[in-house]
Amino acid sequence: LTREREVQKLQTQLEAILNATGDAIVGMNNLRRITLWNPAAEKLFGWLTREVQGREIEMLLPDDLRDSHEEKFREFIAGRDRKKGKKITFETLALRRDGITIPVEITLSSALIGDKLSGFAVFHEISERKYVEKILLQSEKMRSLGEMASGVAHDFNNSLTTILGNIKLLKETV
């Protein structure tokens, strides 16, 4: 009875954590089939839990990225990229149910639960970060352009001063 209460308590804590996080957490088995889908995943991707259970995790990626990331997921789950406690994180695009792609950062981790290997992918949307990076890059380009224009204006002004000085000398000699 005490053991059952402890299991129930742990299960309640896990559900609370999965519900509280703002990042999409997707669990998968060793065949890369989705086994866990938190409310943030529903919100990010637009799929309900019952609609994704048992489907391959690559369904969350655009067609042109599926092959390369399928291999990454496969190698991680197989253990070639997985050591005890090791995680890998990478940026890519994810595919929402409505067909819109969004920039995400994915962190892969795995755990041996019982005698079965499970993988977990945490999807963190980075649209705002990408937007800020784009604005910062444009700002840097504008700053560089301003510095270049300032240099050109300075050189032009120096040349113009020389020409005007020469014209003044010519007028004085004429």
Could you walk me through the main structural features you see in this protein, from its secondary elements to its overall organization?
This protein is α+β, with helices and mostly antiparallel strands and 174 residues long. It has five helices and five strands, in the order αββαααβββα. The chain has helices spanning 2-20, 39-45, 49-52, 63-78, 127-173; strands at 24-28, 34-37, 88-95, 101-113, 116-125. A five-stranded antiparallel β-sheet has the order 2-1-5-4-3, sandwiched between helices.
Order of H and E elements = HEEHHHEEEH
* Low-confidence runs: none
Order of strands across the main sheet: 2-1-5-4-3
> Number of helical runs?
5
Shape: rod-shaped
| Overall radius of gyration | 29 Å
Short structural summary:
The chain has 174 residues and is an alpha+beta fold.
Sum up the structure in keywords.
about 170 residues, alpha+beta, 5 helices, 5 strands, about 25% strand, rod-shaped
Write the layout of secondary structure elements.
Elements lengths: L1 H19 L3 E5 L5 E4 L1 H7 L3 H4 L10 H16 L9 E8 L5 E13 L2 E10 L1 H47 L1
Antiparallel strand pairs: 1-2, 1-5, 3-4, 4-5
